Amino acid sequence: MFQHHGFTAEDTAALMGAHTVSQQDFTFASEIGVAQDTTPNVWDNQYYNDTLDGSAPFSFPSDVNLSNQTSVGPYYKSFGQNKTQWEASFAAA
Asked: CA-to-CA distance for 54 and 33, rounded, in angstroms?
């Protein structure tokens, strides 16, 4: 869907990083308000590491699928290791 709208794999991965400050409120009623990384409300790159290693308090299945995809997944790894790179890619996207 992102590609159809002109986003690259890097753009898609970068934009998913906004989940670092989000919480799930609608998909699973039993987990309303659960954060998507272990540093809730902090603008950082922890979302990528927590999604990749399965330690996120909550992960959307689509986020996990993206992190495992051959074109998007490498950016998850790279952004998890380099916040500056992620922020630059996020701003560009």
From this structure: 18
> Which residues, at least 6 apart from 79, have a Cβ–Cβ distance to it below 8 Å?
13, 14, 17, 45, 48, 85, 86, 89
Q: Tell me the domain boundaries of the chain.
A: 3-92
Prediction pTM value: 0.92
- Going by C-beta distance under 8 Å and a sequence separation of 6 or more, which residues neighbour residue 54? none
pLDDT tens string 25-60: 988 889 999 999 999 999 999 999 999 999 999 999
Q: Which residues contact 85 (CB under 8 A, 6 or more apart)?
A: 78, 79
Name the strand (E) or helix (H) holding 35.
strand 34-35
Class of domain 3-92: mainly alpha
